[in-house]
């Protein structure tokens, strides 16, 4: 256990075993975030569904990774590789996965999607929805434009929701389903994912689940789900910043020997032997999905956030998130502000419909309230660093703008 893990574990242990509460979090968890919480004097941060706020330990972890470079030069690859393997194992553990090699480091979720699309020998027939995140939507459309994928789309229903039954009805003749666990604009949590996966597998169709907007805030057990692939990263609720993402490839897929065109020398068997056989020889398991030289400092960057979420437990964080969303919803209702995304059928943020959400978010930012906006509206997401007083202040400022 690193010094980072020990420090965080002691802070979480001080919370006790009961439900999370604002006084306990303020006393024991907020001190882990002194640097970023110093901003609270002039800004209320309610964009925790976007760039999660880093722990103080993150700066020290990143310094450790770079110091290894300065002090050891080429020998730094030993500890850097160990840090990557520790990150893979910890990520797998958080996702209910027994094998760390099922977690393939990527710099973005989109990179993971491309690796899956490029694992098909022919032109895959892909079923997706019109509600996927922009990057996923853009990649799929470019593959279709280049004749590299045949796309079929499911639209939201009259309420703006994606229905699993509609996806199941369209499975025949497909090769791959690409769908979100939590949809980024609406916050909808897709219901009946196990039924979708079972129906897809019964037809020989694989499923790629984009869990980016739920990872770290909704309990998730990829092994129990039986999903073939999943993509996500540390940018949001894992507090690990950009560039530290992953592709999950199930043991079933790995054991079948599937590989991808998105490859490189770290995917080779014994890469440092510098042998060049034809056809290429791949490393065992998930290492066959590695690519060329990676950025090792990212794993240090993601260390503290991953340790905190693991120590606290995602189920416990989800319960507190629902409590905070309920409080925020009551405040909005008191001021007559229409909103959606409350309760267990939505992710961690609440959305306020507005004719010009981007302008509203900018206006709020000027007033010291940091949220963000998508086409569906203004998004606000409290987390364990936010207080009820901050939420009251934010809603009062918002009410003055839209009232």
TrEMBL record:
<keyword id="KW-0663">Pyridoxal phosphate</keyword>
<keyword id="KW-0808">Transferase</keyword>
<dbReference type="InterPro" id="IPR015424">
    <property type="entry name" value="PyrdxlP-dep_Trfase"/>
</dbReference>
<keyword id="KW-0662">Pyridine nucleotide biosynthesis</keyword>
<keyword id="KW-0032">Aminotransferase</keyword>
<dbReference type="Pfam" id="PF00266">
    <property type="entry name" value="Aminotran_5"/>
</dbReference>
<dbReference type="InterPro" id="IPR010111">
    <property type="entry name" value="Kynureninase"/>
</dbReference>
<keyword id="KW-0378">Hydrolase</keyword>
<feature type="domain" description="Aminotransferase class V">
    <location>
        <begin position="83"/>
        <end position="369"/>
    </location>
</feature>
<dbReference type="GO" id="GO:0008483">
    <property type="term" value="F:transaminase activity"/>
</dbReference>
<dbReference type="InterPro" id="IPR000192">
    <property type="entry name" value="Aminotrans_V_dom"/>
</dbReference>
<dbReference type="InterPro" id="IPR015422">
    <property type="entry name" value="PyrdxlP-dep_Trfase_small"/>
</dbReference>
<dbReference type="InterPro" id="IPR015421">
    <property type="entry name" value="PyrdxlP-dep_Trfase_major"/>
</dbReference>
<protein>
    <submittedName>
        <fullName>Aminotransferase class V-fold PLP-dependent enzyme</fullName>
    </submittedName>
</protein>
